[in-house]
Amino acid sequence: VAVLCQRYQVQYGFELFLAPTRGYLDFGDKTALELLGVALRPYPQLWRANLRALLRPARPWHAYGVWRRAGGIDHSRR
Length: 78
Known about the structure:
The chain is 37% helix and 13% strand. The chain is of the alpha+beta class.
């Protein structure tokens, strides 16, 4: 990640991460994202890995976020 951050800094002239990050999301982050209108959806192609995460909660759950605009069309169910 350090090499990527350095390359980004050289290419664009500012930091990739605006604030220090942990590199993962926890349930508090999930709740905060949902309150902001971001719907988290599992990656369909990673269903096996997500099934393992259900059986062993220490394993990662792979998902992406879709932001729903207030008063707009909900594109999260495509």
